[in-house]
Design brief:
The chain is mainly alpha-helical. The chain is 58% helix and 6% strand. The chain is built from 17 helices and 8 strands. The strands form 4 sheets. The chain has a two-stranded antiparallel sheet with strand order 1-4.
């Protein structure tokens, strides 16, 4: 029989007196396959009383092992598919995922953002240009760190606060900025106008106690990495250390960690999967917050692993679809040019435009002529002379296969 949440066993024990919830709790907490932590979350009992006496634990049961293997197997498939993507296509697809991750993470919190707006900032920063706007720039920079920097090390409160400030700069209203030394120093409630879903620690002193233990846990290399990331995600959200931006910060930390332990594509698909399953996401947090479940996170981890897999499936499906479409573009180009040689200079130029069109978020964010010319010139200065590439672009604009969509900077889009 599959493991049941302790709250369900409590309900069953009302009619089946052979069930001892206390014995089962003790058995689980002290089992050979149990990871017991020094994290004490704020839990709420059925009388709406706050409890902080139970340590988080989880059982490395069969389901967790299977789901963890599925995540790692999907990651290998993603890596294999990504290696089949040409350079422009791969970079554009990663930028698209990154843009979606930021947009969905914001929308989960009720913060409306425009996909093209985010994509434009990503494009500007990737090309070392100064974004024309300031909103969201800090957020995009932190997400680019997921791709460009080694795993972050969080050793103290200051490290956490620096990440928070960088991620949310310009995005948090003045009256909701942290009012303590590092965190908030005033009580908050989570819920609707009529219902309180969760009441986290009331002041910075209590928050520091929780976060000190969490930082210690985050640096424990003896915990399985996926499980550790998900326990961290729960404890961070349960503590709610800031007045605003906790959800965005928590999902960023999850993405940053998984990008180093699994892969960047998986890491940048998490908020999309959560966005598609928001009701489920909130429900599993609500269940884990129940005192009657004894701070056991086995079931929380199982459901979160399923969400990670949902994101991975979406990535794999998108990659396969895009590779199929790219192969169709390739066949069309060969037919139009009456060639078979993919090293043909004109084919190479036009195929880059095809990659850009297929994988870019918006036409305006596709490859610019100058970038294409410089990229090919760097690849082979003799074969791809700059003047020659410019002539090819002009030739196929005259033929109607390339359409000029911008003059400053000069940019063309393929028409097939």
């Amino acid at each position: 029989m599959a493991l049941q949440p302790l709250s369900i066993l409590r309900y069953m024990s009302n009619t089946d007196h052979s069930i001892s919830v206390e014995k089962e709790y003790s058995r689980r907490l002290n089992g050979d396959s149990t990871f017991k932590t020094n994290l004490f979350p704020v839990l709420t009992d059925k009388m709406s009383r706050r409890k902080e006496s139970l340590p988080i634990f989880f059982i490395e049961e069969r389901r967790l092992v299977i789901l963890s293997n599925d995540i790692n197997n999907n990651s290998r498939k993603i890596d294999q598919l990504s290696m089949r993507l040409p350079g422009i296509a791969k970079n554009s697809y990663i930028q698209s995922l990154l843009t979606d991750e930021i947009q969905y993470s914001n929308e989960i919190e009720g913060v409306k953002t425009d996909r093209k707006e985010i994509g434009t900032i990503v494009d500007d920063l990737q090309n070392n240009s100064n974004p024309s706007q300031r909103r969201l720039v800090s957020t995009v920079k932190k997400y680019l760190d997921i791709l460009n920097e080694p795993v972050i090390k969080i050793r103290n409160f200051s490290d956490l606060r620096k990440i928070y400030d960088s991620l949310t700069e310009g995005e948090i209203p003045e009256d909701k900025l942290p009012d303590g030394e590092y965190f908030r120093n005033s009580p908050v409630r989570i819920g609707t106008q009529t219902e309180t879903v969760h009441t986290p620690p009331v002041d910075e002193k209590k928050i520091k106690e929780k976060m000190y233990s969490l930082i210690e846990f985050m640096n424990n290399e003896d915990i399985p990495p996926i499980e550790k990331s998900l326990v961290t995600h729960f404890m961070f959200e349960n503590t709610h250390p800031f007045n605003d931006g906790n959800g965005r910060m928590g999902r960023y930390l999850l993405s940053q960690y998984l990008s180093k332990k699994i892969d960047s594509f998986t890491a940048l698909s998490i908020s999309g999967a959560i966005h598609e399953n928001r009701a489920k996401y909130y429900k599993i947090f609500k269940e884990a917050d129940k005192y009657e479940n004894g701070a056991e996170l086995t079931f929380f981890i199982v459901e979160m692993m399923k969400l990670i897999i949902e994101g991975q499936k979406s990535v794999l499906e998108n990659m396969n679809d895009l590779l199929g479409a790219l192969n169709e573009y390739k066949a069309q180009l060969k037919s139009r040019l009456s060639i078979e040689d993919e090293s043909d200079t004109e084919f190479k130029v036009l195929f880059i435009f095809a990659e850009s069109k297929l994988f870019s978020i918006d036409s305006s964010l596709g490859i610019k002529d100058t970038d294409l010319i410089n990229m090919l010139y760097s690849e082979d200065r003799k074969k791809y002379k700059k003047i020659q590439t410019k002539r090819i672009i002009q030739k196929y604009e005259d033929k109607g296969m390339l359409k000029k969509i911008s003059g400053k900077p000069l940019q063309h889009e393929i028409v097939l």
